[in-house]
Fold:
Amino acid sequence: MNFLSHFYFDRDTDNCYLILGTVLPDLLKNADKNVIIHPEKLQHPDPSVNSIIQGWKKHLEVDRYFHSSEFFITHSHQLKKLLLPAIEGSPVKPFFLGHIALELVLDNLLLTTQKVTADGFYDHLDGCKEQVVNEFLTFSGLKETAVFFKFYDGFKKSRYLFSYSDTKEIAYALKRICMRVWKDPFTSENEEKMNVVLMAYRNSLLNNFMSIFDDIENKLTLTTKSQL
Structure:
């Protein structure tokens, strides 16, 4: 799941460090794809650092439920098939495109149906102190944190997730993500055709997209109860 979809499950918390933890695996991967840390089993004396660890663990849990769900398997495959004609000549792998496209569509639907707000998400990130985040990263084994903070500061300043509320911007967001792997992933014609597909698919999901969030929320609740 993408940033806002992860945020959805803890949208009512007042713990900014928990929220940061739920999206930090993806932030780190975007900042430097070579970074690999596994803080899931760590325990820190600072409650704020532990909140980031708890959020990190929840991210992994949500992604595990999502990627094994019938919803993900069905709709990422459908999107892959529908997008294939639109990306003719593109080097982008169709499965990768279907996967990422579905996640971006879900973020768009959460925003446009007011299930979450981008303001609320960024307010949480802005509330986190850099020294706490740095302590989490170094405690988790990341020796050099400057690259991450350069990306992270830019991510917060750009307020890029606000653009996800515009369905026409989903294809552009997809292009930006694909550019991390492929230099020139799409032509302008590809993007125009992708927009048509994505807008139609977004509308087809409008009435039942919350089923995947409800399903994951139920699984999270059951897991919590079993641990008590």
